[in-house]
Amino acid sequence: GDSVTQMEGPVTLSEEAFLTINCTYTATGYPSLFWYVQYPGEGLQLLLKATKADDKGSNKGFEATYRKETTSFHLEKGSVQVSDSAVYFCASSPKGGNKLTFGTGTQLKVEL
Amino acid sequence: GAVVSQHPSWVICKSGTSVKIECRSLDFQATTMFWYRQFPKQSLMLMATSNEGSKATYEQGVEKDKFLINHASLTLSTLTVTSAHPEDSSFYICSASFPGIHEQYFGPGTRLTVT
């Protein structure tokens, strides 16, 4: 079945550091790919998504590019802020479907 | 827009009792709702998918007689954990979607502790 693998955390960075959270997927066909963010005490929020190869999703300074060749969807941000501290989940869903498969989540902590 | 609420946000119950968790879409009609379970430092595990007015579809390994799901209206789905045991203690999260939008909107979750 489909699966999503993302790097384990926690990840601790200083403010303004560069962030990369790796995510790879296995799926039949070409799924849609998502990054969700969960702030403390809140539900998951969609951060960005990409629906086909070479698409780049972006939001709030975060970016991720759908790489078919490497089956990856790594999350990046050039300069993190303390307010970015949260748990980040990579997820996939089959083409035309809405059933999500999640990675294990990566906790990010940004310090001053 | 697309706000989903859950009630209660946390609940403690005694072993052997049943507990009901509500999931509501506040500003849209949710034809499909999903129930997840999240263990500490682990991913969300899909338990079941429910469509309004029909029986829920449970994932493999999820006991449908233990985790009763009802999606009686377009804005409300309920998960009832029957005869709860300590191993049922977990964080339960619901999400909702509507036709044509391949995106799920998540509730804030419910922390269940069974003593």
Descriptive report:
The complex is a heterodimer of chains A (112) and B (115). Chain A has strands at 3-6, 11-14, 19-21, 23-26, 32-38, 44-50, 56-59, 62-65, 75-77, 86-93, 101-102, 106-111. Chain A has 112 residues and is mostly beta strands. In chain A, the strands form three sheets. In chain A, strands 2, 5, 6, 10, 11 and 12 form a six-stranded mixed β-sheet that branches. In chain A, strand 5 and strand 6 form a beta hairpin. Chain B contains no helices and eleven strands. Helices cover 0% and strands 52% of the residues of chain B. The N and C termini of chain B lie far apart (37 Å). By secondary structure, chain B is mostly beta strands. In chain B, strand 9 (90-97) and strand 10 form a beta hairpin.
Shape of chain B: globular
Q: Order of helices and strands of chain A, N to C?
A: EEEEEEEEEEEE
How would you describe the shape of chain A? Answer: globular
Kindly report the average pLDDT value of chain B.
91
By helix and strand content of chain A, what is the structural category? mainly beta
Distance between the termini of chain B: 37 Å
End-to-end separation of chain A in angstroms reads 41 Å
By secondary-structure content and strand pairing, the structural class of chain B works out as mainly beta
What is the helical fraction of chain A, as a range of percent?
under 10%
Strand content of chain B: over 45%
Count all strands of chain B and give the number. 11
What oligomerization state is this entry in? heterodimer
The beta-strand count of chain A equals 12
Q: Please give the largest β-sheet of chain B.
A: 7 strands, mixed
**Rg value of chain B:** 13 Å
